[in-house]
Structures are given as structure tokens and as C-alpha cells.
Amino acid sequence: MNLPPPPAKPRRSLLRCLTFLGFLLGLLLTAIFGAMTWAQAWGMTHYQPVDARSTRARELTSAGKARFLFTGPTVRRMSNVHTPDQRGLMFSTKVFRNARGQRIEAWEIPASGNGPLVLMFPGYAGSKDTLLEAAVEFHRLGCTTWLVDFAGIGGSDGSVTTIGWREAGDVTATVQAATAAQPGRRVVLYGTSMGAVAILRAVHLGEVQPAALVLECPFDRLVTTIGNRCAFLGLPRKPFAAGVVFWTSVQQRYNAFAHNPVEYARDVHCPTLVMQGEDDRSVGLGAAHRIAAALGKNGTLQVFPKAGHAYLAVHAAEPWRASVGRFLQKF
Description:
By secondary structure, this protein is an alpha/beta fold. 43% of the residues lie in helices and 15% in strands. Helix 1 crosses helix 2 (62-71).
């Protein structure tokens, strides 16, 4: 007599158990990934009090990097500790409001020359005193300058940054205030890093029509520069960069995936000088090349050997001065 085969129920039960465990593991990993990227997005866009200690990723130990991944960065709200008079420059403080009703603070440094009116915007997490070295050089070239604190930083209202997206409105408000105070002046917009991106977006939106732009170390896409940050921390660019940008979009209520300065540059129709440090690890040399290509005949790219990200007026003073001087002679 033939006996029936043994029932397959135990094997099926094991398979179901493994499937369920795999599902739970997937949920756990998804939750961990979501928590990590949410914390990175929040910390990156919310400035902490002026007495907080900013996280410096390059100084983190292995244990510190592990904590950093789950708690996000601490970005201190910078205050202006240096003023133009310490560099021998007379100045006055200007206060005006952006379209969101926030107070924006700027310093005006007058010049006796006939150079253009240069409106200056700092990089991510930087207050306007970080622009002083560049302002000194513009002053020597006969330019009147306005040094601006974006909303959230320095003497301006707020505590949040959108990394150049809504800061474009601060650029627009500055142009309106400055041209109302000094009508008829040729306006040149200067920005470093995030400041350069905010300028490109303001021009892209059609809100400003400057005579020229001077852009220093702009990033090409937000997701790319976040990817650079992830790579430095030893994380894979994919999917971490996209996760951080996704939560930035949710938290800040704008499509951060569309924050693409290369696309903005296609709508720039005035002469533009793009300056880039060859050893820039934050945005990379390729970003400047892609933006210069998008500018087409309106763009001039100047790469400074052995220089890093931003502050090129300090770290590449002589070539910076020569490049900007030649460029401004046209105006």
C-alpha cells in the first residue's frame, strides 16, 4: 500500500514566518532611514541659538558621526561679530522687509568712485560680516556695496533657511530697497555659494534685472550638493540624498527636487562671472562648469587653483581681485 506524502504545512509555515520577518525588517529599515533623513533635513534648515556649537562634520569621530546621523547637524545662527568700520570703511545700517514681511538687515558702504552698486549675499549659514573681505575689494574698485543678511541669520528676522529657494525673495527685496535709495545706479549682484544660487533663482523668476552677476561657488542642484555631504559621511548618495531632499520638501513646503540652479542659469541674459575653487569639495568643480555652460555666451568661468569652497577673496585674493576688476571694467 502506498503511503501519502507528508504534509507541506511545516515548510509553508516556515516560509510565511520568514516572509513576515522580512516584512518587519523592511519596515524597521524604512523607519530608520526615514528618521535619519528627516533629522538631517530638519537640522540643515533650522538655525539654532547663537550660543549653540555648530556641528563640524570633518572633526567628528566615528561615534560622533553615528550620533550625527540620527540627530542631524547643529547649525548655529551666526551673528555679525565684525563690522565695516573695523576695516576702515564708513557704513550705515539699512532695514527693509521681504515679501513675507520679515525684516532684512543690510550694511551700506558708500564709495566715492563711479563703480556700480554691488549688492552682496553670503553663503549658507553665513552672516553678512563674512562678506567684508570681498566688500573691501569692491570698495577699492569704486563700488558702493550693500552687504545683506538673509532671513534667519545675523540681524534679519527668522530662524529657517530654504538654501536659496525663498532667499531669492530676499534678493528681490534688496534690489528694490537699494534702487529706491539710489535710483539710476547700475546694479551688480554678488553672491557666494547659497547667495549665488538665490541670485540665480531671483533672475530666473524675472523679479530682478541686474546689469551683471558675480557668482562664487554656486551648487548646480540641491540633491547633488546634499549627495556630496552624504558621501563625506560615508553614506551612499543614493538613496540618502534623495531622502534628505524629500524631507526638506515636506518640512519647508516647496519642491526641493526642483531647486536646480543650472536651469535657473538658462534664464540669465546679462554678463555673468562664475568663480570656482579647483579644490572645492562642497559643490565640486563640475557644478561651476555646468552653470557656465547653461549661461552660454553670457557666462565667463574663472577657476582658481588650490582654492576651496567660497571665500575666494580671502583664499585666492590676487586672482580674485584681477578677475573681478577686469569684469567690472565693462560696466
